[in-house]
């Protein structure tokens, strides 16, 4: 576990941590580089518990003792506050950052193998909503999460932070296009229930009263909602009864309500 003090924010050793606030850049850079960024000792600890490995840790001097036992054989780069802010693009105050090796994606069929309650996120591009949905999935008993090809990355720094590290405890994977994903869901015996406002939707209360043994809740992006192909792939369309002239909830809140109603 080498401890290296670095004073130059342009040092190539720190490349993994550069421009963390540039979402468009990180969305391409991190998966292509086989890494993701874990922020705070709590999140790093949860990532390690899930079997993920750090390739380096970035920390300010005052937090060094907190991360010595977390880094394993990976180098620890120690920087001052000014270098950390210039490097990352924001004031780092959560103790530590770790560049983690991104695990290999799991096959969709494997993720579904023993799952009775699944959450599917289609094309949700807001990382905060993705993280909040994962937190709901973990806290309310979902066995797995599937995300569409265009959904935001659950391992993006903000998603991980909002999820409080629960992205590491719920099995998940990115599913293929619907023409292939629908067949895998059918083979696994999973009933797909899309949450949407349609004329033929049944209420969540009625659906929960006759809950299929294995069910996947399909949630779409705020604004656009579910795609036509997603709705065509669903076995049922379900809506949450609302009051007060409100027709819908934030996607993460809706996921939490529906997961609670359908918990095994």
Molecular structure report:
By secondary structure, the protein is of the alpha/beta class. It has two domains: 3-101, Ribosomal protein L30/S12 (60s Ribosomal Protein L30, Chain: A, 2-Layer Sandwich), CATH 3.30.1330.30; 108-262, SPOUT methyltransferase, trefoil knot domain (Alpha/beta knot, 3-Layer(aba) Sandwich). Helix content is 34%, strand content 21%. The protein has eleven helices and twelve strands. It has helices at 23-32, 41-49, 64-67, 81-88, 108-112, 127-139, 157-162, 178-187, 204-209, 228-233, 251-262; strands at 3-5, 35-39, 54-60, 76-79, 96-101, 117-122, 144-147, 172-174, 191-195, 202-203, 215-220, 236-239. The strands form two sheets. It has a seven-stranded parallel sheet. It has a five-stranded mixed sheet with strand order 1-4-3-5-2. α3 links the parallel β3 (54-60) and β4. α6 runs parallel beside α11. The radius of gyration is 20 Å and the shape is elongated. It starts with a strand and ends with a helix.
Tally of separate helices? 11
Order of helices and strands: EHEHEHEHEHEHEHEHEEHEHEH
Q: For the terminal residues, how far apart are their CA atoms? A: 44 Å
Beta-strand percent range: 15-25%
Looking at this protein, list some descriptive labels:
264 residues; alpha/beta; 60s Ribosomal Protein L30, Chain: A; Alpha/beta knot; seven-stranded parallel beta sheet; five-stranded mixed beta sheet; 11 helices; 12 strands; 34% helix; elongated
